[in-house]
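[step 3/7] fold_predict: job queued, chain A
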Amino acid sequence: MKQFKLAIAMVILVSAIVILLLMLFTPQPIQITLESGREITTESLEYYTLTKVLLLVSSAFLIGAMSVYLFYNADIRNGLLPVSGRSASRAAYSAVLNLLKVDEKRAFLAVVDSGGEMLQNRLVSKLGLSKVKVTRILAGLERKNLIVKERHGLTNKVKLKEIGA
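[step 4/7] structure written:
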């Protein structure tokens, strides 16, 4: 399924680039009516119709969106993002950290600093937050596929999620 999505993204990217280039470098016929009533038709690369402008803008947007999508997926495939919680470091997760809320970032970094896993009750005491607040923070991190919680006696073991697993 992932290869299918990547193939579709590549097709959209190439199509958008082709459309953009065709629109930019195809002269547009312009009809000019003189005061004498005579009509002159000329071609110019400087004027565009509203339809062509909308096609140019949508093509440029698709090029940007598909480039970001393909670049992000290439980072995961090429191992630029950590694969395992055991090899975790703060620097490896810098891109992820910028997208997290303050409390999520603190909890996530606590797990990273502890080697990729820690007990939830230890996390509660380390963060100095209530159990309910930490549970909600961890639920948010789980929804974002950054951690996994496993039952461990009366508490949970919080582990960094392996990317691609």
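[step 5/7] annotate
The first strand starts at residue 28 and ends at 33.
The chain is about 55% helix and 15% strand.
exit 0
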